[in-house]
Amino acid sequence: MTTVSIGDADIYFEEHGSGEPVLLVAGLGGAGSYWAPNVAAFASRYRTVIHDHRGTGSSTHSRIQYSIEQMADDVLRLMDKLGIESAHLVGHSTGGAIGQVLAIDHPERLKSVVLYASWTRSDPFMHRLMAARRSLVLDSGSLAYLRTTPVFLYPDWWVNENDALLASREDKGIAKFPPAEIVASRIDAVLAFDRTQDLPRIGIPTLVLCAKDDFLTPLYFSEALAKEIPGAKLSILPRGGHACSEVMAEEFNRQVFDFIDAHA
User: Fold this and answer.
1) What is the CB neighbour count within 10 angstroms for residue 22?
2) Whole-angstrom Cα distance, residue 173 to residue 153?
3) Average pLDDT of 130-139?
4) 30 φ, ψ (degrees, to nearest 5)
5) Is residue 108 left, alpha or beta, with left meaning phi > 0 and alpha meaning psi from -120 to 50?
6) CB 72 within 8 A of CB 225
């Protein structure tokens, strides 16, 4: 297991491949393993880095008040430890919020950014949905939370076709599941995030990508991001849900590769 100290926490990370550095940053679940369906393809072209966010997986389960800005700072410190001056960042959902913060506050550290299934600021729909997930982990426990998560991430047809795979992931996920209060604090960070007024300041190449049937962060969030970020490209996959990088991996990879290569 490869971990590096960033000062007040140890961060688990993996590096694959060589070439232009690309950071694949996971969403709320925080586990670098989210990118397993994509890593081999990315590593065949780029120096690909994945990591477990602080508070998740094999990284330190710090009992702190989490925020998107704190998560972005952890990414910067990981980059410093790995000697990465600047990189392309592909951020899923919460990872996309991290990408927004870095693109706004530290544009010199990013060559380009992909905001995948992300959002601008939470609205009443998102508040109700995330409040339900918060109550689930606090009141019903980690296993109930894990078993319910695919309902938010994947289309119904994909869940029906991959039920055994999802069950096996529950068994692995429960072993490294963080304390419920950490999950709740990370959800609070998602709901508190709002850098909408700063989006017009983003000057680096930006791809906004979302599936048309994304339930967790509906398409209108991506449309708003693309509208507010100068020069941003909007790409809409016809299906794939909130986790279209897995459901539609080949098409997802192709679109991201085309974008990164254009700005390498």
Assistant:
1) 27
2) 15
3) 97
4) 80, -5
5) alpha
6) no
State the Cα angle at 137 between 36 and 193, rounded to 5°: 75
Residue 13 Ramachandran class (φ > 0 left, ψ -120 to 50 alpha, else beta): beta
- 25: part of which helix (H) or strand (E)? strand 21-25
Amino acid sitting at position 94: T
Please state the three-class secondary structure of 246-259 as a single string.
HHCHHHHHHHHHHH
Reported CATH class of domain 3-262: alpha beta
Please enumerate in sequence order all residues whose Cβ is within 8 A of that of 104, keeping only pairs 6 or more positions apart, or say none: 195, 198, 199, 201, 202
Q: What is the mean pLDDT of residues 14-43?
A: 98
- With tokens 């509906």, the residue in question is 218
Q: Which alpha helices (H) appear in the chain, and where do they start and end?
A: 36-43, 68-81, 94-105, 124-139, 142-153, 156-161, 163-175, 180-192, 219-228, 244-247, 249-262
Identify residue 28 by its one-letter amino acid code: L
Fill in the DSSP letter of residue 261.
Answer: H
Query: What distance in Å separates the CA atoms of residue 142 and residue 156, rounded to the nearest whole number?
Result: 22
- Tell me the C-alpha distance between 31 and 93, whole Å: 13
Q: Are the beta carbons of 129 and 148 closer than 8 angstroms? A: no
Rounded-to-integer distance, Cα 149 and Cα 132, Å: 11
If you search the block for the tokens 């969030």, which residue do you land on?
221
DSSP letter string, 150-164: HHHHS-HHHHHHSHH
Tokens 């140890």, residue? 10
Q: Is 174 exposed, middle or buried (0-12, 13-18, 19+ CB in 10 A)?
A: middle
Which amino acid, 108? E
Over residues 134-160, the mean pLDDT reads 97
CA distances from 110 to 25, 75, 87 (A): 13, 11, 5
Q: Rounded to two decimals, what is the model's pTM?
A: 0.98
Sign of CA dihedral 255, 49, 115, 199: negative
Q: What percent of the chain has pLDDT over 90?
A: 98
